[in-house]
Design brief:
By secondary structure, the chain is mainly β. The chain is built from one helix and 61 strands.
């Protein structure tokens, strides 16, 4: 709201205290503008949605003087609805309606000590034209003329237009009138202690705050003969329903011992209670209530039948304004299903956000809180793109306190450059608090860069022993800015481009010639979305960037000029918003780092198709670790081999894909599924002869390939399972009487430790078999032997099914392989012992075994690598296959 008196004062533009309810709109939504301004002036009232730039309507209004409230017959009315609701209506909005006086337990005003109640300052009731009682003790059951705001069953509210004070008491009723009316004293009474204090007594909103004169207003009380009944229901969303009744009803009264969550007011068609979170009135009405449903059990969408009221006649949680229990009534209601929407996304320009760009998101409703799933506070559910389509890393998303989970503060890892960005939310990526999915959403966000450019660090390359000047392997330096910088051909003037070499001097105080602009032949290259600038200088033109120790300690004689003044020129750099880096702010080299040597890293197999290499070399300067990074890699750049022992000559694996981590130190190699098993303990990672690998300094690799032991995180998997022994004679087992049984599990790697609790054996798909023990085979370390007992109810023929599985997910199992990896869990597998299913003997002559042949078909594949036929033939108990 603005006018000619305050055209540029923002304090005069934030004036609305009121809210339009978009879920329950009325024909005449109202808001009170709480500001005292001169009359006989024209003011512009502007309505905007979330953002002052998003104007939806405006209107010019001339404020004219109005007469004071003075006549109790025309300027104030008191009406009752039933015997439990009273409405005190003034001609104009009033101030200090809730002024109160602290009192003791007897209702006497106090100035010190703990108050037993707070009585309304400006109102006092006289029932039947006399002062019946002023006690605030509810146990007396008498009618008190004092209105105690601390009475838990009393609610006192001011209408949205500021004109009406509405009082409701769910437990105590106002006495009925017949021949004699009641009186309400306004700006007078027992607790009207200082008639001249404009901060306490009732006044209007005029510039001089005119005091409303003391008045007595009569009112009558009557009740109907029938209770209010529900007549219609509207449910625009699944967690809110508005019900209209035939007569006025009370907002229910709840306590800590009888909370609203236990309320028996709404019922589904199956008789189940609808759990509520709050109940409120539709503004300026008495016969409609808004029931907010707990998000844990929202209503089903579509047309449903809902029961309203009490199924009992002698008790109930919903009472009408005459004190009657609202009877149980069924209503048909069409429950809406409204997906949440993103209403706005605007930059938070709070000056406290110096290191990170922050935007505030406003959703149409309360959203799910789940930092790892479909919650609005999970950063992974958003994509934020610059004008070139480059994704900007999000550091955190958190709900704004007091927003009922409808507003998110999104903090980025860096300061973003000025420009137009796009926020994207994929369909069904996030949900509201009742599980409604959001649709695919894009929102344009304008980012303003109001920060001064600054430098995070300056790093160079280590030199070699004996070098005093930079060489081809040490002539690069990187300046890391905090914000995206303007570059040649960028949005700002190229004169201040951060990659323009004329704007820098690298002055080394022992060589006076370096106190000059960077020499011809220097190449400046933007990196990391123009946040970094790399400089490669001509060989031999500058001293080394490090000291003779070659440990990362920078040469202290360097002063880095980012912009400088000449005799008649000023050289400077600026960011993408045109903000200038401060002149005369000299920088020094932070640290130097070595070239990348693949042998100085670690490797880990993280799945059967993925291997991760992490470069770990670097320099420690003043307790801070600095490192080089990969800048450009391709799958064809690498040669990778794996083995269970040190690799002499690698057998190259086929690399399907490579990806580089954000910090440039971790490479994830992807291969065909099942390329790796838990048996591999060594890896070779080297560069191919034609590799094009370069680091952030524009240099290639140095040193040796990686060829050593690795971390193997591939879980051992089940290779085979067999019923190795089963008794046909019931015996007393160690756990229960039955048939002893032995089951063998073979895994892809040697087992280090196991536990019987990791497995379940089911008999005939119903009975869990007790497991006596789980041990590692002394013959084959990759085999686990389980011993258990089948129930005695099994038949002698043992024509029964036995199935086995792991008892839990891998993360809860204690069976681990020799590498310390938990075995991979598996579901039920049916097992039986090795047996011959078909046997056929062929004779060349009757009753003559010479030349006869025996064909046997087994129920399982035979492993002749472990038990070759020759070993069977030579066994004393086996058949001599050679004859």
């Amino acid at each position: 709201m603005t006018n000619s008196l305050y055209p540029n004062d923002p304090l005069k533009k934030t004036l609305i205290i009121g809210k339009i309810d978009h879920l329950n709109p009325t024909d005449s939504d109202k808001a009170l503008i709480n500001l005292i301004v001169p009359t006989n002036e024209t003011y512009t009232i502007t309505i905007y949605k979330n953002d002052v730039a998003n104007i939806s309507a405006s209107k010019d209004i001339k404020l004219v003087p109005y007469s004071a409230i003075s006549d109790p017959k025309t300027d104030i009315t008191v009406t009752t609805t039933g015997n439990r609701i009273a409405k005190i209506l003034f001609k104009y909005p009033i101030r200090n309606a809730f002024s109160s006086v602290p009192v003791d337990a007897s209702g006497n005003p106090i100035t010190t000590g703990t108050a037993s109640g707070h009585i309304l300052y400006n109102f006092y009731a006289l029932y039947y034209n006399r002062d019946t009682n002023s006690s605030i003790d509810p146990t007396k059951g008498e009618w008190s003329g004092a209105i105690n705001l601390d009475n838990p069953s009393l609610t006192a509210t001011l209408s949205s237009d500021g004109k009406a004070l509405i009082l409701q008491d769910t437990l105590l009723s106002i006495p009925l009138t017949e021949d004699i009316s009641h009186i309400l004293a306004v700006n007078k009474g027992k607790y009207y202690l200082d008639p001249t204090d404009k901060n306490k007594v009732l006044t209007d909103y005029s510039e001089e705050q005119r005091i409303i004169p003391s008045m007595e207003v009569g009112f009558d009380v009557s009740i109907t003969s029938t209770p209010a009944v529900p007549i219609s229901a509207v449910a625009p969303v699944r967690n809110q329903i508005t019900i209209t009744f035939s007569n006025a009803v009370l907002t229910p009264y709840f306590t800590s011992t009888n909370p609203i969550s236990n309320a028996k007011i709404l019922f589904l068609s199956d008789g189940s209670i609808v759990k509520l979170s709050s109940i409120k009135r539709v503004p300026d009405t008495f016969n409609s209530l808004i029931f907010n449903i707990d998000n844990s059990n929202p209503l089903p969408s579509g047309i449903i039948t809902i029961g309203v009221g009490s199924p009992k006649t002698d008790s109930g949680d919903l009472i009408d304004a005459c004190g009657y229990i609202v009877p149980f009534t069924k209503l048909a209601v069409n429950v809406g299903s409204i997906p949440p929407t993103l209403e706005s996304a605007v930059q938070d320009t709070d000056s406290s956000n110096k290191d990170n760009t922050v935007i505030d998101l406003t959703f149409s409703t309360s959203m799910l809180s789940d930092v790892s799933g479909k919650g609005a506070n999970n950063p992974a559910n958003y994509t934020f793109l610059d004008s070139s389509g480059v994704s900007q890393p999000i550091q955190a998303t958190e709900f704004i306190t007091g927003s009922n989970n409808s507003k998110i503060k999104m903090t980025f890892k860096n300061l973003l450059g000025a420009g137009l960005y796009t926020l994207k939310i994929q369909a069904n990526a996030i949900t509201d608090s009742i599980g409604e999915n959001i649709a695919y959403t894009t929102y344009s966000v304008t980012i303003e860069d109001t920060t001064q450019p600054s430098v995070i660090e300056i790093i160079g390359l280590n030199s070699k022993t004996g070098d005093t000047a930079i060489t081809d392997s040490s002539n690069a330096l990187i300046i890391k800015y905090k914000t995206p910088m303007n570059i040649i051909g960028g949005t700002a003037n190229s004169t201040c481009a951060a990659d323009k070499i004329d704007n820098y001097k690298f002055y080394e105080s022992t060589v006076s010639a370096t106190n000059a602009p960077l020499p011809i032949g220097t190449v400046a290259t933007p990196l990391k979305n123009n946040n970094w600038i790399r400089f490669i200088l001509p060989v031999g033109t500058y001293p080394t960037f490090d000291t003779a120790a070659h440990d990362g300690t920078p040469n202290p004689n360097y002063s880095i000029y980012i912009g400088y003044t000449g005799l008649d020129t000023i050289n400077y750099v600026c960011n993408t918003s045109g903000n200038i880096y401060p002149l005369c702010s000299l920088k020094t080299i932070t640290a130097t780092v070595p070239l990348i040597d693949l042998s100085k890293g670690t490797a880990e197999i993280i799945s059967d198709s993925e291997l991760v290499y992490t470069y770990t070399d670097g320099s420690i300067v003043n307790g801070q670790f600095y490192h080089n990074e990969f800048n450009k890699i391709d799958a064809s750049d690498f040669v990778i081999g794996v083995s269970d022992k040190i690799i002499t000559t690698p057998t190259p694996l086929s690399i399907k894909d490579v990806s580089l981590s954000q910090d440039g130190t971790k490479i994830t190699f992807t291969f065909d599924p099942k390329t790796f098993t838990s048996a591999y303990k060594y890896a070779y990672i080297g560069a191919s002869e034609s590799n094009t690998i370069i680091d952030i300094f524009g240099k290639g690799l140095t040193g040796l390939p990686y060829n050593k032991e690795i971390i193997n995180s591939v879980p051992s998997t089940l290779v085979g399972i067999s019923l190795t022994d089963i008794s046909r004679t019931p015996v007393a087992g160690s756990i229960a009487n039955g048939y002893p049984v032995t089951i063998a599990f073979k895994f892809s790697n040697a087992i280090k430790n196991t536990s019987a609790s990791d497995f379940l054996i089911a008999f005939n798909n119903a009975i869990n078999i007790p497991i006596d023990s789980a041990t590692i085979s002394t013959v084959n370390a990759n085999t686990i032997i389980l011993k258990g007992t089948i129930p005695y109810i099994a038949t002698d023929e043992l024509i029964n099914s036995i199935a086995i599985r792991t008892s839990a997910d891998s993360s809860f199992l204690s069976t681990k392989d020799i590498n310390g990896n938990t075995i991979k869990s598996f579901n039920y597998l049916f097992v039986d012992n090795l047996s011959v299913e078909i046997a056929n003997m062929t004779f060349l002559a009757s009753d003559d075994l010479n030349g006869a042949s025996l064909t046997a078909v087994f129920n399982k594949d035979l492993d002749f690598t472990t038990n070759p036929l020759l070993s069977v033939a030579n066994s004393k108990t086996g058949i001599d296959f050679t004859n």
